[in-house]
Predict the structure.
Amino acid sequence: MLSNTSNFAIRALVYLELYSSPEKKVGIKQMITDLDIPEHFLSKIVQLLVQNKLLGSTKGPNGGFYLTKPAIDITMLDVAEAIEGKENLGNCVIKATTCEAIEPCSVHHKLAHIRNQVKTALRAETIADLVSEFREREERIRI
């Protein structure tokens, strides 16, 4: 449903909600180790999240990453749009661009309701919801 990049971004945000704060930042090396995501890949992900103001970062010996707003205010749709781009979530499966209502592709109307349902579901789920579910299960799973 979402790209691996978006999935990894969501994992990174859940991780940072669990283990960071503006006072206690988490470095990229620690995130790479704990999340088991390749360094170059995670670096690009956090850069996009910082550019989209979902993460903050500081440099230096006590530097690292942290959420810039409460996890309850970050939806999965926010993350997907930050990673994929708002326009890319509506890309056509047939054409190389976004479908136009004037000249839609052959499956545009068939998929429009599914695309809207996915966006609605992603908008309804927050990083805080995911963290809460993670904590409720009390499983020692690797996020």
Q: What stands out?
A: The first helix runs from residue 4 to 19. The longest strand covers residues 55-58. The chain has a mean pLDDT of 87. The chain has six helices and two strands.
